[in-house]
Amino acid sequence: KQEVTQIPAALSVPEGENLVLNCSFTDSAIYNLQWFRQDPGKGLTSLLLIQSSQREQTSGRLNASLDKSSGRSTLYIAASQPGDSATYLCAVTTGRRALTFGSGTRLQVQP
Amino acid sequence: EPEVTQTPSHQVTQMGQEVILRCVPISNHLYFYWYRQILGQKVEFLVSFYNNEISEKSEIFDDQFSVERPDGSNFTLKIRSTKLEDSAMYFCASQVYTYEQYFGPGTRLTVT
Lengths: 111, 112
Fold this sequence. Notes:
The complex is a heterodimer of chains A (111) and B (112). In chain A, strands 2, 4, 5, 9, 10 and 11 form a six-stranded mixed beta sheet that branches. By secondary structure, chain A is mainly β. The N and C termini of chain A lie far apart (41 Å). Chain A is built from no helices and eleven strands. Chain A is globular. In chain B, β9 (88-95) and β10 (101-103) form a beta hairpin. The model of chain B has no long low-confidence stretch (mean pLDDT 94). Chain B is built from no helices and eleven strands. Chain B starts with a strand and ends with a strand. Chain B has strands spanning 5-7, 10-13, 19-24, 31-37, 43-50, 53-57, 65-68, 75-79, 88-95, 101-103, 107-111. Chain A binds chain B through residues 31-32, 34, 36, 41-46, 49, 51, 89, 91, 96-104, and chain B through 31, 33, 35, 41-45, 48, 55-56, 58, 91, 95, 98-106, 108.
């Protein structure tokens, strides 16, 4: 059974800092890995999708990498802003289409 | 930009009552999903739906749950007899082929 772990559980940084969020998964036979942002009491906003054949994806200040063989992904956020404060979720698909989610990293960017 | 919509945003119901949660997926999407998130816990998969039938379901999705696509736009989740432990945020998602899943804003279900 696929398990997804995210470290750290919470992170507080000053504005402007570059930061890295980590995601690991136990079954390396994934099809896709997707990063989401969740604001308190709100839905999930898709940030980046990495397909299993890809090593990384970039969108603006966000860069996600995937190392399938070691079961790891990182989300790099450059020049963090207070508006980046949210919970970041990592999720994978294995074989079937259902996403398996991690518990998330709660990010607070201090102005 | 097209988005997934869900109604209602908040539903309060008494234990044992039936509830129907509604979703309008993005119009050209083919795969539809329901997930739930109990407060403070991970987002969990419930069911996926393709070509007018269930393609996958989790252990959570027992006989109390059902899904339907009654017309070309709506996608519903019905809980026949709600329990206290059904209280959660329910998210609908839709997808084209193997690309990103797009999530709706969720329906907060409170069972009293």
